[in-house]
Hints:
disordered N terminus
Amino acid sequence: MDEVCPGTAGKEIRLVTHVLSAFPLFANLGFFFAGVMAGPGGRDRLVMQYLNNLRIAYASFRIASEEDRELLAYVRQCAGDRA
């Protein structure tokens, strides 16, 4: 990192540590990990999702792979399985 952006490596590590330390706070509020989004200048962003008591018809989903099944199980678990 220092070769590309001199002097920024420490800042990036502190930012990652800060985001990771905030993750449990948001998780306790009902948010869950939804992905990582590419940002400008190579600064990726953590994406969290909040379903806000949304009822999901899980049975209507068409699951194409085992990975999709695992992802859906994760969402159901995070949402408290509100079907």
